[in-house]
Please model this.
Amino acid sequence: MQPQYQSSKMTLVANAIEPVQIVRVRGGVRVEVDDRAAAEEPLAVRIGGRPFATIMRTPGADRELAAGFLLAERIISTADDLGVIEQCRDEEARGNTINVTLVDAARAERALSACRDVTSSSSCGVCGRQSIDSLLSDITPIASRLAMTAVTVAALPDRLRASQRAFDETGGLHAAGLFTASGELVDIAEDIGRHNAVDKVIGRRLLLDQLPLTECVLCVSGRTSFEIVQKAAVAGIPILAAVSAPSTLAIALAATAGITLVGFVRGDSMNIYSHAQRIT
Model:
């Protein structure tokens, strides 16, 4: 990449929270109080100044989100494909528009001609592509020898939760965390959308030119669906753990992509759905 990247993760908490007024009912007593809620706003992603996709997200780490999203959509393969990622400052954009310039103009043209005009909601992570097959066409199965103990896996959700600063304020944000095999937290991102949190944390590593993440473990705060596994596969992450259930398509993709998929990580129990040899 040509521009020097500086992480914006420390600004996320402030942007993720908005004050609201509510009527709180406790034991039949109604009280008007000030509260806080998780912010949700649209982020328009442009490629070369032209509309590509709109992502409903929690504001903050927008450059990382855009980079991770384009990686998952297979618009880019490495950080070297990126020229400039910049926040649009015009009045119409109002801070909710990112413009991405790709090094290869032909790649940008192919992306724009292949995409359809969509809005990706905070619950949908693969809305920008024509088919699932197009997202899997160039994924190579992960051959990492990374392994970790079941005890370490069991501790990940609590360690992730302990680092969710914005969740403490709102109770309404998902988290994605990267860990080492010994359970040390490497990075975390929060967003109202599970897949957005994953895009942010992977996009940050992409901008730091640290992919593939073959020595990292991804832990997510919710369920594991197809798009979460697909994003992990693109980033080269060999172990994916979640506090809730995976879908059948997520399990099938994890098996094909060489990912150890662990679900229902709660207390000292868990289910290992694929490539169980990595959990000792």
The mean pLDDT is 84. The chain has nine helices and 13 strands.
